[in-house]
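Record type: monomer structure entry
Structure origin: computed from sequence
Chain ID: A
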Amino acid sequence: MKVRSWLATCTTSSCATLTHDSTIPFPKKPPRLSEHLVSDSSSDNRGSATSSSASSSDTSYSSLPSNPSLQTLPSVPSLQLFPDTLVFSVSDISVSSIMPLPNHPITCVAVQGNFLYVASVNEISVYDRQTSTLLDAYNGNDSSSGSVKSVTFCDGKVFTAHQDSKIRVWQMTVTKKHKFLTALPTVNDRLRRFVLPKNYVSVRRHVKRLWIEHADAVTGLAVNRGLIYSVSWDKTLKIWRASDARCLQSIKAHDDAINAITASVDGTVYTGSADRRIRVWAKPSGEKRYALVATLEKHKSAVNALALDDERSVLFSGACDRSILVWEREDSANYMVVTGALRGHGKAILCLINVCDLLMSGSADRMVRIWQRGVEGKYCCLAVLEGHRKPVKSLTAVRDDEHSDVVSVISGSLDGEIRTWKVSFSGSPSSATDFRKWNL
């Protein structure tokens, strides 16, 4: 599929032409603030790291039920099937686990090269991904920063998003320790703007802040071509230049808290909110600033997670309505439409990640599901990974070797445990009984 320009918006009933300053009719039912996400603990007690491992030889499993959850969004067709021919089937799964701060929730996991970054409340731990050896733990003494919501990487630096509305920038030293560089917005950026009244915006009654500041928890970060994109519960999207850490633009993006963001290589940015909408942002031809180019409406509750496929032509969105919607751009269309839903989780979808043509989803039902695209845009659930005792809050995945059929799926849960599932794939399954529920 080719990536095409955005010219229209898709609502629940129709697709209509949209310019960047157009408005979309809002549903009569107001969005509920209580649908943000599963709440995070803010305790700062620290415990020692522990690890354990289990092999798939000890695995108990059963055939995957064809309809494991209640149907949601009945107007959206299901994309699930059990095709006779698939690229992969799951042949083996092994799991290892780490608990950085026992009984403290894991709020974010991220991988950079051979390093695994784990955020547990306000502390960020860095592990060797192959040996699970703890290399560094930082920000643990700064309990005022609140829980870490997101970790991303750009130009050799580590960017972390925090509950206290700040984005912090770190540098790994030669000793694999992390040094604090600055917080966004920087002091220099503030000094450039604090004098002029026009640089202040109202964030609540009788309270004003510089437009470069987030006014609530920063919930997500995305990176593309030297730009950092941040979203917050303050309903704004901000664009930062990584080279000098300067805020370039701030957009009132949604009518409720923003929970998720992802960016395509062509510069298109997608944001998902508790207002049940996904909005698409891009720079119009010849413009330097981002503008709204589409609003995608189909979810019936807060959007919590977004992911793009490898070709950046398919968008996946997960919400509290328990469904993962699949949005596609086709050669015959110049807008994105819902092609169907992936159903199976019994509770809210909290995180999504796509790697190697595989989609992984984590849910408040404590499970991780692995999906693969089959023929004619249909999808199959290859495996259900069970073992977490609380909601799966964050996911990341990486292929261990370019020529290997092993993918490491790393899940972080509110139970305080990080699990690394090494999933081995083999040839096409011969029957529906090859689709298993793995309980490790």
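Annotation 1: The chain is about 0% helix and 50% strand.
Annotation 2: The longest helix spans residues 187-193.
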